[in-house]
Amino acid sequence: MDSNLKLKKQVHQEFMEYLTLHKQRKTPERFAVLDHIYSTKGHFDVDSLYKSMLERSFRVSRATLYNTIDLLLDCGLVVKHQFGGNMSKYERSYGNENHNHVICTTCGEVREMENDDLLTPAQLKKIRKFTVNYYSMYIYGTCSKCTHAKNMKLRRLTRQSNKGKANKGKKQPTTKGKR
Ligand SMILES: [Zn+2]
Ligand SMILES: [Zn+2]
User: In sequence order, what are the beta bridge partners of 92?
Assistant: First the structure.
């Protein structure tokens, strides 16, 4: 069987059990949301999920999306990320385990990075009284684009304030280039 199909069957089963255990309704919409999340890789927020479902002609209300995501978070089929910024980002959790997130705190870009060799099996064994299924890290910093943009801006402002000193008394295009 196709591995993605197998995965989808597995998560479908899990969600079914969860809904039964928690006496929640098993609506086709909820399963459509689950299926859609497991058909696409990567991070999403409620808006992007809503749009991408519309593109495939699934009309599900935002209220249903929020409600279903809450259920999926609760049963562990979806994880919520803290990437900084004010919009919550989500990601499917199964079949997607071994990666870290490299996050630029300036522009918010998130890159994924395989983490197979960040922790050795010996290091993992040192986590006592605990069975590690998977792990994931958030690595915060500045991407090369933002570093470059910052340097360019700094250079421009320095040049402006130097010119400002040279042309003292003349009209300035910008107000106070000094920091
Ligand atoms: Zn950046
Ligand atoms: Zn990710």
Answer: 78
The CATH topology of domain 1-96 is Arc Repressor Mutant, subunit A (1.10.10)
What CATH number does domain 97-142 carry, 3.30.1490.190, 3.30.9.10, 3.60.20.30, 1.10.3720.10?
A: 3.30.1490.190
In the reported structure, the alpha carbon of residue 63 is separated from the centroid of ligand 1 by a whole-number distance in angstroms of 32
For residue 108, the ligand closest to its alpha carbon is: 1
**In terms of pTM, does the model score above 0.85?**
no
The span from the CA of 91 to the CA of 12, in Å, is 16
Residue type at position 173: P
User: Which residues have a beta carbon within 5 Å of ligand 1, which is an ion?
Assistant: 104, 106-107, 109, 143, 146
Q: What percent of the chain has pLDDT over 90?
A: 52
Q: How far is the CA of 110 from the centre of ligand 1 (A)?
A: 9
Query: What is the tens place of the pLDDT at every residue in 126-152?
Result: 888 888 777 778 889 999 999 999 999
